[in-house]
Amino acid sequence: MYKAFTASELKGHFNLPPDYKIKGYISYGAYDNEKHFNNIKKVLKELKLKYTSRNLGKVYGFLSHILEIKIKGNIYWFSVNYGSARLSEYLHLACLFGSKKNIHIGSFGGLYPEMDSLELLLPTWSFSQETSALSYNREAKDFKHYPDKNLFNLIKSKIPKQYKIWEGPIITNQAMLGETLEDVKKWSEDGYYGVEMETATVFAVSAHFKMPSASVLYNTDNLIKGQTVGDQTHTQQKMQREEVKKDVYKIALEIVLNNS
């Protein structure tokens, strides 16, 4: 069925040339395409990188959440996805089209009592029973999905020294409005550091294709301490969050653009 489609067949379906290749992929967990497309363009300019870009939705509508970035003749994908259904398919395509590194960035809800808002987390694994992950990691009877160790360590080495870095497991749950206080307490008691919507899928799909992946996330709503998106403390941290986002973009770009 669909999983058997070849790279050549899929390029034809999505109106891409037969020799189309990408070198790396960055996914961002969010819903606002244009905001984050503009953010990464600003960072590229700040880094003084010469690039061209286009929304791939102009080539084929389904690809509208992907910003294609060309630098020194190489193509990179940056996509914005809220949850994992479409993300799993973008990752599938990216791996078939040659991506060498897949990095996921974004935010999470904090579950670890000692962690503060805006601190960074490197997920050591992600628990997920979502089919967007399990369809690519059918042997994961414990529902754990892992990053590539070398890429994990490389990201860790690139994080600016002013950040507190946490390492630990997270849970990937796509039903944000279905989360209860009891869920948050239980996840925290079970040792999870955070909850978000995409990381397990990035790990599972990438590993299926034997492509390295890893994730770096920032704590946006510190759930275990009662903070939620849009409350007073969260709103007051808006400017700080934008600075953290910028640094996370830079980390991902530095690694994806590196030839090693």
Automatic annotation (TrEMBL):
Example of a GO MF term: catalytic activity
One Gene Ontology term from the biological process aspect of the record: nucleoside metabolic process
Ranges of residues in domain Nucleoside phosphorylase: 90-255
Pfam family membership, one: PNP_UDP_1
Domain of life (superkingdom): Bacteria
This protein's name: Nucleoside phosphorylase domain-containing protein
Lineage: Bacteria, Candidatus Tayloriibacteriota
